[in-house]
Amino acid sequence: MADILLLEPGYSNKYPPMGLMKISYFHKYIIGDYVRFAKGKLPDAFKDKKWDRVYVTTLFTFEWENTKKALEYALSIVKDPTQVYTGGILATLMPELIAENFPTVKNNTGLLNHTGTLGLKGEECVDTMPLDYSILDDISDQYVYPAHDAYFTYMTRGCGMKCQFCAVQTLEPEYIPYLSIKDSIRFIEKKFGPKKDLLLMDNNVLRSPDFDKIVDEIKELGFAKGATYTNPKTGKKVKRYVDFNQGLDAFLLTPHKAKRLGELAIRPARIAFDHIEDAEAYKKAIRLCAENGITHMSNYMLYNGDDFKGKGHNYHADTPEDLYCRMKISLDLCEELSAELGYKITLFSFPMRYIPLSDLKRGYVGKKWNMKYLRALQRMMIPTQGKGVSSRSFFEADFGKDVRQFLEFLAMPEEHLGWRGYFVEHKNETPIELESRLKIWNENQKYIAEWTRLFNQLGDNKEAFIREIGDNNYTIEKYITLKDDLHKKLFIHYFTLPMLLKSLNTLEGNEATFIVNYICNEFPLIYIRMVRYIASGRIPLSYIEGAYKIFRKKLVNDIFAELSFEGSEPPFIIGSLAKIQAKTHIKTFNYDIVKSAYLFINAGILKSKEKKILIDSIKKLDSSNAKELLLDKMEEFKTSLIKQAKDENVGVEYLIEQIKLSLTQMYNQITLFDEDE
Ligand code: SF4
Question: Is the pLDDT of residue 150 over 60?
Fold first, then answer.
């Protein structure tokens, strides 16, 4: 009996690794080996164990870094380095990459349905073996696949349409029109318990001449329209569904096939809408499904694509406008069908970003897109939480009321994008919390309005500005290359606050004056937020220095306005201001007064009126008034400290000596500072 480890790299994925589940079945039930499954790495309990064989599955090419880590790990825990096996999507698409980086690893491209793969008797049948669901228990405390309560299987293999952008022609070159799943489903049911749903991963089931046979078999397995499932653990009865999760080809959906699909508990029916040129076929397919009682549908919308050939068409590289129109077509169609048929149709849109089959990272930019647009779209999709877009109100608020607004949103700074939306009151929120959130929300809306005002001033010359922000990189170096004042003002909106501070530190002369004028006079909210940012955090001195040199007492005054004077210690910024003052020799205030004020207030020796006078004086940068009050209270402060020291049982005399020394030092610091030096 050999020890077999199945390893899935540590990426996040929705579906369990079917290939490994079949290999597990093969080793565990046919050969009789010990099998363990791990995601990313094994738990510590296995740290000294060496394995006879390790199988590493692979997924998308852009997960190469995670895959590499998994293969390195596999080699570190296997007894013999020639006993690491890999397979799956990346391994099939880029075998040379595996060979180059891991020469001892045995790479299986394609399906495990032929001999010469694992070097074991019976290997040609692995692909048709039942899935061993029990391996998922090995990682249940670490990772739960979003889709796990389902039978995962195929009733056809391959596709044959050879769309240029699609990996199926390499992964499954041969089209197999029918694979019975009856036996393996029955087996799984018996061995691991029934599953709620049926997830069919077929690439192009509609192409099958055995489509009727496939539908009949699915019905026979208990997935006819209206089918229910009783959870064996809870006894609860719920509806169960069939999902052809790779999508259905709109071009191959005939009235007969739509009628047959309507006989199944299908939810959702996924129809691909990858190119705007397919609009008519797509609309026809959605209509056919809806007319046959399929009420829940969704689509896949590839975007960021290139010029492609496929299904006998030449498709042009898609544009952002195309994507918007495709989503809009879906929304309109959904509403039209619901009204016409008298029952509610839901149709979710799932934009999916195109990444070339050989890319090892996610950063590909299609020829009609740019990085800024891609990032913005990603930002817009966050509220959908991966569930797609189906309501008009959400669609219009998030993606825009028309193409013009969609393009405007794509160009908007990412932060502003996140600020859009209505103000919503939170449950259990106090009036003060609500008021402070509302204040920020109102400010955010002003930011959006200001950016939009400037952007619209570009009129028909937006393209030049879009080119400038297209790489989504907002640096000072780029800022200084801008010639147009309007572009410069807009560009300031893309700066993060640290970058804005850095620009004030770096730029000189007219360049600095331009920024100062815009953030202080034209749109002072930026200056206000910058001050708040400086006052609230542990910002490096080098960031604040530029602003300090430019704004001097005004900056200090505005920072002081933000201070609460609560807490035992002055905030970090006070120390920073003191250091910058010493470094630049630009005198603004005696910061020892602020530090002492915090100590006096915290010691509780000030009456509320005195406390108010002290704080007001500091906030007005009136050092003489604040100094006078502190000196008046010095004795009282000393007495309170000595009293505290006496409460300590050890080293009282030493403590008192130290207090006296510190207070002399404090006295000197408060009195010897000359602001006008
Ligand atoms: S029809 Fe779909 S599965 Fe088939 S090659 Fe084209 S994109 Fe791939």
Answer: yes
